[in-house]
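G., before I forget:
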Amino acid sequence: MLLCGLAVLGTLVLIVYELVLRSGPSWHAFGFKFFAARDWDPVNEKFGALPFVYGTLVSSLLALIIAVPLSIGVAVFTTEMCPPALRGPLSFFVELLAAIPSVVYGLWAIFVLVPILSNYVQPFLSRTLGWTGFFTGAPYGISMLAAGIILAIMIVPIISSITREVLMVVPQHQREAALALGATRWEMIRMGVLRNARAGIMGGVILGLGRALGETMAVTMVIGNRPEIAKSLFAPGYTMASVLANEFSEATGDLNLAALIEIGLALFLVTIVVNALARLLVWTVTRGQPSRANA
Amino acid sequence: MPETKKSAPNEIVPPISLRRRCTDHFMTGVAVLTVVLVLVPLFAIFAYLVYRGVGSINWAFLTQTPKPVGEAGGGMANAIVGSAFILALASILGVPLGVGAGIYLAEYGRNRLGDVIRFTADVLNGVPSIVIGIVAYSIVVLYQKHFSALAGGVALAIMMIPTITRTTEEMLLLVPQALREAAYGLGIPRWRTTLSITLRTATSGVLTGIMLAFARVAGETAPLLFTAFGNQFWNLRVNQPTAALPLQIFNYAISPYDEWHRQAWAGALVLIVLIVTAVAAVRLAVRRGTFGAA
């Protein structure tokens, strides 16, 4: 049994070892400049990961901007407002959203979401918000925006289920006290519940971010896969995970492979930090000291 | 009558202002709206799957291998079987390790090392699946010199282990301490107690964890891209490239052919039906089982 436990530990060590070992050539060739250079040119063996880092960050942040208010709304509704009979089915449906494989999300996004975006949403956005510079360019549908939206749909179940858990450990007397002081239901939720659960909700959000950063298939299918940095969200982009998905099995040389693995290593390290942070936050809340969140 | 009821407390507490009441109603509306916004894509996805998928599923789809581009017909039978094959390999590798690690954590893991392993499992759970694909590539494919079902199985096994470990641990901890003490009291050695008393009692819970991990990796595509790689033909050899349902869906979805798009929808429907059945079965089993509270 100890052996099995150690095997879990060993797996993680193995992952780190393999990634570090195999990305060595790229590390020696480019050093830290790897993450600041913009060219991705397998023919001339010049590799820079900046467009991918940018694409990963922008698509994930976009997803958070869309998903966080939605998930908190759903969590608040299921814990504080909805009739008890609806609670079970509602959380079941949201959980179901988490059970859909990402390739199916991608399939749906290509054939349903992208046409809707290019026919209705993008023309509308460029008419009304085009002046900001974020919504300009040809409305192809395949874009950073599409990636952000599909990611948002995928991370809502994670954020909302953790938020729900955290809201449920807020002591009942906090709610009763707020109501007794004459608060309306919303004021009670805002002051008595959400404020106490801040740290835990933050943990859920970061956990969702971790998922969004590493998500591969659905994003690869709709983001357009072009290593460019564009201000407009209508432009195609590329993420760290999707460049791995597209180019890994077709890498042309050792250096190309090493560069791809270095991207994988970076992705791995970032998600580990993000996840550890999230676990820590959720843990401080659910292990019974919600009052600390007030400090 | 309601008038007098309302006015009585008003003498002590001032009435809630219109602004506050409006905010209250407004925020309730916002919350309902978010629920609707979240459920719309869910229903849209299922509606489309059924709408596009049902028309494309036929006997040929379930029994034939893919036809060359341009020829109508053909199916994904090899991918369905290939998926099952890779998942079986993953389970053979992952389930014993995961359960073993869970037993260690629950029965012997109340110490520093246990905490480290627990944290490691949580970290592993968050590693992007594509990165696990890279690792399986470099430890299996690079040595074998070609893509294989085994590499796919290893990748999926690595993904299954943390989920199984943590649920096994939780389920074993629910077994009452008195049961263990009773076994010790009868002179049964510790390892025997763990295997035939504790694990036996928690069987349904442990199985639930295994099924959840199984359902989670069944739809994984990213770690299979450069491990199992895909195959247009039948393959049941461990060291050869093998087709998998999610891979086939991905390849068909990004192809330019209508016929393949149709088959991608059908494949997605088959996949989702399998996964949802598994998840629903687990929920049912949990509700019926001894450990319903968990």
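Chain B has twelve helices and no strands. Chain B touches chain A through 91 residues (CB under 8 Å).

More on Monday.
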